[in-house]
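Batch manifest, entry 17 of 40.
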Amino acid sequence: MADAAQLNSDPDRLLFAYWVPNVSGGLVISKIAQRTNWDLASNLRYAAAAERSGFEYALTQIRFTASYGAANQHESVSFSQALLQGTTTLKVIAAILPGPWNPAVAAKQLASIDHYSGGRVAVNIVSGWFKGEFTAIGEWWLDHAERYRRSNEFIRCLRGIWTAPDDGDGFTFAGDFYRFRNYRLSPKPVQQPHPEIFQGGNSDDARANGAEVSDWYFMNGNDLEGFRAQIADVKARAARAGREAQVRFAVNGFVIVRETEAEAVRVLQEIQGKADADAVAAFASEVKHAGASTGNKTGMWATSTFNDLVQYNDGFKTKLIGTREQVAERIVLLKSLGVNLVLTAFLHYEDEIEQFGREVLPLVRQREAEGRGKDAALEIERTGDVYQKPAS
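Output type: structure tokens
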């Protein structure tokens, strides 16, 4: 396996992250056998393997209650801290849910963890899609637009708390959800100006947050037209906010690499064929309602099929399923569209994180060294057919 530092020496490189399986059931809602565990000891092995393999980020999941195949859930922030203590270069993105968390608590937690880890924590602000989770713990369930408006305030408060001058009056904010008066946080985070802030979604509200307040905008899997439209829209919104150069894009993709494309597709078909039908149907009902409740009816999962929803974030749509060469080519295409980070998930974490680092990541770096990933028209001509919308 190539040395991770050597693999990641180009400042213009595409970045790679992986979903942390800190909830049980893996990253698919399926009864297929998986070599993936949710305990800390296993996850420390996965993190070490990812770090050796060239991954630069990991994303923990936030769940408060059992749902849709995830019977057990470790808390995201403490789990992120544990992974950071077991690694040296990996940056861990802790998922936080406004409502259960107050920005003062989150800012303090994350600033301290940033010190413990030498500046390697980041945060993903999750606006929430699961009504039952909120009501179970006694939190108000706001409508879609209000949830994202609360997240917007939450992010502004995080950034304000972290960046308020030490010799000034502290952070003051008067919003509809959060209020601060001359609040001073000490110590501030190690990272300057602050830890990276991720946020995702597909609705107008999510895109506005991505453009106006986030450092990173997460996207679910999509077709070629969908990726291009989403990136162009968020970039245009960011430009109007004077932040076009500050917003980067990350995309979710489920990875299946096998010796032949036919073998990889058979694995996908087995995952979908052994789907936990009741759990997928319940998940579909919950998220379709969330998507339909958006102003433009295009929230996350609004157009997802049953088979799409077997992977939580439409990861099959990203088409990282095939031979190592096919997957590398598709990743380079994603880069040419404006994607800066690929968030991966796997069926067998025990083996496939290292397989990706050994077989796929060096091929991506080779193509980048050849100048690939910069000309969208060229990459679409070479690889784009796989992302076209299926004929209706």
